[in-house]
Amino acid sequence: MPFINGSGSSASNEGLSRRTLLKRAGLAAALVPVSGVLAACGGSGSSGGGGGGGAAAAKSVPLPTYVPPVKPKPLLEGSAQGVMDVYASFPMDGPRTVNGTIGDGSEFNVLIMTYGQPSPPVDQSPYWQLLNKELNLKVKPLQVPYADFQTKFPALVAGDDLPEFVSVPLYENVARLPQLAEAQFTDLSEYLSGDAVKKYPNLAGIQKAGWLNGYLNGRIYGVPKSDPVFSTQIYTKTDVIKAAGANPQPANLQEFKDLAKAVTNAQAGVYAFGGNIADFMMMMFGVPNKWTRKADGTFVSAWEHEAFVPAMSELADLYKSGCFHPDTPTLMTNKVQRDALFRSGKLAMLYDGNRSVGIVADDKDVVFDIMTPFGKDGGNAVHWTGGGAYAMTMIKKTTDKKRIDMFLRVLDYIAAPFGSRESFIMSYGVEGVDYEVKDGVAVLTTRGQREQDLGLAYIAGGPQVLCDPQGAPGVDQLNHDWQQKVVPMLLDNPAAHLYSETFNSKGASLQQQMQDAITAVFLGRESASSLTAAVQKWKTGGGDKMAKEYAEAAALAG
Amino acid sequence: MSLPGRPVWLGKPKPVAVALKALALVLISAVVIFPFLTVVSTSLATKQQIDENGGYVLWPTKISFEAYYQIFNGTQVARSIVISVGVTLVGTAFSLFCTVLAAYGLSRRGSLFQRGLLSFVLLTLLFGPGMIPVYLMVKQLGMLNTYWSLIIPGAVSAFNIVIVRGFIQGIPKELFDAARIDGAGEWRILWSIVLPLSRAVIAVVGLFLAVGYWNNYFGPLLYLNDTQMWPLQLVMRTFVLQNNVTSTAASIPGYVAPPTQSVQMALVAIATIPILCVYPFLTKHMSKGMLTGAIKG
């Protein structure tokens, strides 16, 4: 597969020849149709066929040595398994963790995917100016909206317009990322592997689950931005549930069904759910996290698990019983309306990603709980873990060691742990402009929230924490307790950090095919038995090949 | 019922028929107006009322301009509106200029390379070049991060040329002959005869071009890396996308989520109003121009 060689892309200084155009169009054509069909493959709504789209085939260099970061004592301690620390508020006088000058006054051109609005220009953003001063750099972000990343990224690659530093969101499944990294980005193994990472103390505080995402072709190419290991949660509107005389914490499938029926009151417009809870049902039935690696080293997808079809059959029955909001087909993709219906009590339960607790808990008057997962016959369910990192940041290929060191010092600053002075600056900016202090707690202003959309804070980082001082009372304790209960149920995806060429090229379309089949069963358009044929089609369409490739990659990784 | 000897369509309609027609028109109008009303009402509603009504409000009990304040306070929306207006005006004028000239030239029988050029233009209707080749071409022409990248790549559409050319060909040949007898050259004929008679089709094509430029977000996404240059549609898109996921600031303690649904609706209202303002001035040309090409000969 031809690839742009970093040293060969100098067409901007020449006229556009037919050869150059065809060469680059061919390269980008390899990225565009693949990345165009590669939808987000993580989080809720996906299972069975996913894996790591572009991560390690082999861990040939040791992981960076973990050194617990210096951080303020939390209110509630987290754990190495992934339970998050809880803080009452953001300490405003935290310690400095990075000393000395970071940058060299040069430009820091970085590609950042953003979930927010375009940030104000630097001359109108005190936050941006403060970061430039702290880092001793001129930060110049190239912001790309998250939904358009797979459109913009191939164009930038084709035009050789990638900036010097690139933060790649891992769930976007950038096509052929290992090959792209090898061709265009710097191998950071000698700077980060083993004890070498200790030179950057905050990077050393990133845990293993995060670092595994920085591996490509067995080498370390990127610094991760860690994500919580917990994937999804069911939030319960306890006031609505208790008013219906139901138990908000069922212990098995039958109690869950009873709860759903008890809270549903179509005349009052109250329903149990307003979206697809297929993943929750699969976890309840013990369906594995996308893949299972058997003792003989072979990989079997979750779609082939014996509990998959029965789980979907139960889901379809639940939908048929009328416990789902009539607008469920549109609510599946309309998070804004779903959240509004939950807050107003029209939905008794809301199934969403773990970050959604902030959305539902931003109102002190919202009364809610988080449902502890359970097995269909009682006992523990399984809880699929996420990938461990949200993004990975790389530096374009260079032999300039000083430049690489500066890049890592910048990321070391950005990855400073919660409660540190650096983290406070990254999160809050300038007092009086970006944040105000109310009752001893820093609160972002509207302007501060907007300036935060610069996005620089999200290109590197260690474990996240729970801290919602503005939210419903006790929401962090609630989430912390929930996480501790769920830790024994955590189930990793054995293919999470393995590379499969078939997954990269066909994974998204195969995944969509299965999701469509599941949705058809859920909404009653097809019977559950149709899933058998859908799985067979998935297998022959590329699933079996993926299984083989993952097995080979796992054997190589050891 | 018609009078004896009069055609049915000239007969005076019965009151019942008139009433039924009026009712049908009212219902159809309501169906059309209802979504617009919902959009405006939701944009002016409070977060509490929006939550209570499950996301959409038909009639706000308490007016709140919080959403509009959120949008215009310190955001790029005001600037992006100016950019969108500028790109739309310049782009429409430029596209009309190119389209009319091309259509006129290709409508004159016997003009140099007429057949070859027409075939070349029609060929582009069959397939597009693809996103990456266009991006590379824009880059090589030095248009990346310039507003010309939003105008020039899509300035001329073969479809519009065919429409305008067909209209011009419908102008009686005698007018051209008379003008030539009076000593008018091709430019004079274009300016004094063709353009005045082509107001309808130019209005329609111009309106479609303007709407296209106004709504375009894909070009800015690809070609403008500087977010300060983004036009309204792309900025709006980031608002809408933001409100469907947790904002980047949401993980920061003390973050308070904005009223998302009302902000989305306010954006729709802001983006729709300029086009609604332009339409009334062009409707008198629309009905005539829409029929261009509908009747052969």
TrEMBL record, chain B:
InterPro entries assigned to the protein according to its UniProt record, in alphabetical order: MetI-like (IPR000515), MetI-like_sf (IPR035906)
GO biological process: transmembrane transport
Topology in membrane: Multi-pass membrane protein
Stretches assigned to the ABC transmembrane type-1 domain: 81-282
Gene Ontology cellular component annotations, sorted alphabetically: plasma membrane
PROSITE patterns assigned to the protein according to its UniProt record, in alphabetical order: ABC_TM1
UniProt keywords, alphabetically: Cell membrane, Membrane, Transmembrane, Transmembrane helix, Transport
Subcellular location, record wording: Cell membrane
Transmembrane segments: 16-37, 81-104, 116-135, 147-168, 189-214, 263-282
Major subcellular location class: membrane
Protein family per UniProt: Belongs to the binding-protein-dependent transport system permease family.
PANTHER family named among the record's database cross-references: ABC TRANSPORTER PERMEASE PROTEIN MG189-RELATED-RELATED, POLYGALACTURONAN_RHAMNOGALACTURONAN TRANSPORT SYSTEM PERMEASE PROTEIN YTCP
UniProt name for this protein: ABC transporter permease
Organism: Planotetraspora mira
